[in-house]
Amino acid sequence: MTTKNQLFISVTKLYPILSYLERVGISRKSFCSATGLSAEALRDPDLKISLAKLDDIFEFAQRMTKDEFLGLHMGEQLTRPFSHIIGHIMMNCETLLQALSKFCEYQRLVDETTKTVFFEEDGYTVIESDILDMSIRNSRIVAEYKLSGSYAYAKMLTEKKIHLSRVEFNHKAPINKGEYDRIFCCPVHFNKPRNALVMDSKCLSYPIIEPNKKLLEAFEMQAKSMLSSFDVND
Hints:
The protein has ten helices and seven strands. It is of the alpha+beta class. Helix 4 (70-76) runs parallel beside helix 7, helix 5 runs antiparallel to helix 6 and helix 5 (85-91) runs antiparallel to helix 9.
């Protein structure tokens, strides 16, 4: 695959930001106006925005909210399925293991900035979020958004408690760690070489709520077609 000069991310990644801002009293209209976003364009789940624009939006949102834990809180807002086709694929998988595998396979359709992988390590499953773009590789907001969001989404898909052994971040520890304890309910380590959730492997066998095999096949057919033309279209 040819390396691109500019990476893109699905506009659906902005939805948790907008949801969180509305909860703290900042309207979507005022935020879009302040950042130059088009409220009309945000209704298209297939729209992509540049990484540079996303980074600016994150920073602007943090200034507006004065929320030190903005990334954690945005990820925590992932309480409804993705509007993108990947969300429909994951919702129709049989187990969390299958849903995670499908997400890793099709992730590029919604996010070119990150590569998610999972593997066994010392009897646990590690879900690692590898941020590919050096400009945001050490971004605390991005790392916390991705891990908090992954955790919230796994709980939503299964409607079960996901038992984490620990969480690792590559950024330094903040003074106040209370929000990490509340959200992840496990030890959280900082200044690590990776951003990762470490979980009980038995959680991978948890069934997804109300899967539909025929819908999964149909959505995957479309996703494979989209992926095959991905680079050409971009």
